[in-house]
Amino acid sequence: MKIDSICCIGAGYVGGPTMAVIAQKCPNIKVTVVDLNEARIAAWNDADFDKLPVYEPGLADVVKEARGRNLFFSTDVDKAIDEAQMIFISVNTPTKTYGAGKGMAADLKYIELCARQIARIAKSDKIVVEKSTLPVRTAEAIKSILDNTGNGVNFQILSNPEFLAEGTAVQDLHNPDRVLIGGNDAEAIQSLVDVYGNWVPKERILTTNVWSSELSKLTANAFLAQRVSSINAISELCEKTEADVSEVAKAIGMDSRIGSKFLKASVGFGGSCFQKDILNLVYIAKSYGLHEVADYWEQVVIMNDHQKHRFAKNIVRTLYNTVSGKKIAMLGWAFKKDTNDTRESAAINVAQDLLNEEAKVAVYDPKVEPAQIQFDLGEQFEGVTIENNPYETCKNAHAVAILTEWDEFVTYDWQKIYDGMLKPAFVFDGRNILDKQKMKAIGFIYNAVGSSN
Ligand code: UDX
Ligand code: ADP
To answer: Whole-model pTM?
Structure first.
């Protein structure tokens, strides 16, 4: 089937950028992105491209090019389903907060609601594409709902997990390492291969069976997160042994079998995927009775939690075992640079720990809205101030903690920051982005993850 109309349910961090790029690269396909969230759709349609709900370098230009031409954002889910030949499901799949699998399994209620809606509306054959990261064998459940509640039309299910990383979404979509398409029907697979074939070289479009595709996505995220936890485990050892984790990472990364990427020690990984997907993998393994497999992967998350709490504990210990009443300036709230996403950000845990110790926390992030920080902290937000200027944020602080590796933090006038702080002035660099010698020369007591002072 040659595709000329696509609908995507879910206008979030995955659905929005992915569909914008498909529309940009396939001007002959009408792409409609729908969401129940009216404010979100309004923001995607905003005349001011700075107000798009997802901040990604280069995204505004892509949306500018395609919106109104063949890219549309709407809240009319039924109409978009009805019109499309191919429907991407890109809704959120949070970790379950209730019942069996609470805290571990993926909550598939939004997926199921989508499937039921598609079944109810569809009056012609549709290809349904799983874009959200899903547990293995979800396609089977979707297929069963569609076939049993549908209007007798034919549904094909494909798995097409998204590997884009936030902050580099547009780049990753324009030039993916690979596009993975899992399915059981050759014709349906080919339809989607042809869509991506508009800009992705053939040899990078990989087709597999549905289950391999679903499992590959969880596995890729588990491996990536494992690398971060591995280097973070070594960072703690470095702090005790006068080894320097950046030097260790460089030395091991030059081994081509290990590779140099994803070896940056940090305050801990965040983001909407890593923890959720690993816990999901752990849950699936357990549900098959594979307890050793489950424990093995769970350790990646345990190590990450340890790293986040250890960072906060180190601040308290270094500040003479109390931060009560002391101002601690936190630079960065997003889970990594170049995104406004704060989901599972290490900054949240560190702030919570410091607030529990009665610190006065001041936060500055170049892209995260104050309302988001308030949402992330709930009632604990009371103890927090937010300035829109980093120098004010650091003024009269006992310590500055760097939580996100924003480029601009490196170029600040650190002498000016030092001059405005209480002495001794401490810096806790959770991302190893500042120059240790320079910071020490200014007079800071500089602590970095993975090296002794
Ligand atoms: C990840 C996967 O990379 C992507 O393929 C998948 O589609 C979604 O999940 P994302 O969560 O956007 O993408 O960000 P990523 O760049 O992977 O970083 C995740 C976290 O790990 C961030 O908090 C980051 O700061 C941290 N990290 C990453 C490190 O601490 N050290 C590293 O060396 C790399
Ligand atoms: P992701 O990072 O996976 O893209 P987000 O939470 O950013 O996740 O986006 C998912 C979007 O899906 C949200 O904007 C949410 O409103 C939307 N959504 C969830 N369920 C439905 C549904 N049944 N119909 C339409 N949109 C939905």
So the answer is: 0.93
